[in-house]
């Protein structure tokens, strides 16, 4: 059985209040593994900065979602099927992406805030020739910290010495944020969390972002 190269695309919106997920797998492998053969899709959104996570579980039949549930930290799952914007699967970029922080009547996700987010995406078939494949992606939510760092630099006095505390705090915060981005890109979640936390420490200046 050919193994698919499972890939996802995660996009943060300009309003900084959600992320969307799209399945960008170019080749499902053919044979047994096709989009029509997938019976279950699980999306886990893991906030590595807080240790909380939430899970979407979709039952799929011939590319149509027939059941959908959501849960937080492995708790009781609630149905969200009737509130999905579409029941088509796969989730396709600019067509039917999955809104990870969509609003549901009986389910509320943890707050969308600055954090290191790891998203796991699993497709499964349980009958006949069974299979299960997973991919993951590490993303950064940095709306607040980016705003704060911009204000820190904007408020620097050009006539002040380069070694001033305000200047060093701004430089340190920006440097730690870049370290966090680089670590996330390389999949080093622990380092990304540590660097983002350090950037927030330097940026704890009451900037009002």
Low-confidence stretches: none
Beginning-to-end CA distance, first to last residue:
52 Å
Classify the beta-strand content into a percent band: 25-35%
Report mean pLDDT, rounded to a whole number. Answer: 92
Major sheet description? 6 strands, antiparallel
- Identify the overall geometry: elongated
Tally the helices. Answer: 3
Strands in their spatial order, largest beta sheet = 6-5-4-3-8-9
**Which value, in Å, is the CA radius of gyration?**
20 Å
Amount of helix: 10-25%
Helix and strand sequence = EEEEEEEEEHHH
Supply the helix-strand structural class.
Answer: alpha+beta
Question: What's the count of strands?
Answer: 9
Keywords:
22% helix; 3-stranded antiparallel sheet; alpha+beta; 6-stranded antiparallel sheet; 209 residues; elongated
Task: Give a verbal description of the structure.
With 209 residues, the chain is an alpha+beta fold. It has 3 helices and 9 strands, in the order E-E-E-E-E-E-E-E-E-H-H-H. The chain has helices spanning 143-154, 165-185, 189-202; strands at residues 8-12, 19-23, 40-47, 52-61, 64-72, 78-79, 98-99, 115-125, 131-141. The strands form 2 sheets. A 6-stranded antiparallel β-sheet has the order 6-5-4-3-8-9. A 3-stranded antiparallel β-sheet has the order 1-2-7, with no helix packed on it. Strand 4 (52-61) and strand 5 (64-72) form a beta hairpin. Helix 1 packs antiparallel against helix 2 (165-185) and helix 2 (165-185) runs antiparallel to helix 3. The longest helix has 21 residues, at 165-185. The radius of gyration is 20 Å and the shape is elongated. The model has no long low-confidence stretch (mean pLDDT 92).
């Amino acid at each position: 059985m050919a193994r698919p190269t499972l890939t996802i695309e995660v996009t943060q919106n300009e309003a900084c209040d959600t992320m969307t997920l799209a399945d960008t797998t170019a080749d499902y492998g053919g044979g047994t593994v096709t989009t029509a053969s997938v019976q279950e899709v699980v999306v886990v959104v893991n906030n590595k900065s807080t240790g909380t996570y939430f899970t979407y579980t979709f039952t799929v039949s011939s590319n149509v979602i027939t059941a959908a549930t959501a849960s937080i930290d492995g708790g009781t799952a609630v149905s969200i099927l009737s509130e999905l914007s579409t029941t088509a699967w796969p989730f396709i970029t600019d067509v039917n992406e999955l809104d990870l922080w969509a609003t549901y009547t009986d389910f509320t996700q943890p707050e969308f805030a600055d954090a290191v987010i790891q998203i796991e995406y699993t497709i499964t078939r349980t009958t006949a020739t069974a299979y299960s494949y997973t991919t993951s992606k590490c993303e950064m939510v940095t709306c607040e910290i980016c705003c704060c760092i911009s204000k820190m630099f904007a408020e620097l006095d050009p006539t002040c010495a380069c070694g001033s505390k305000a200047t060093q705090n701004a430089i340190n915060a920006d440097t730690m944020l870049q370290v966090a981005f680089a670590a996330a890109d390389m999949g080093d979640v622990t380092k990304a969390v540590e660097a983002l936390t350090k950037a927030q420490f330097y940026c704890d200046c009451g900037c009002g972002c």
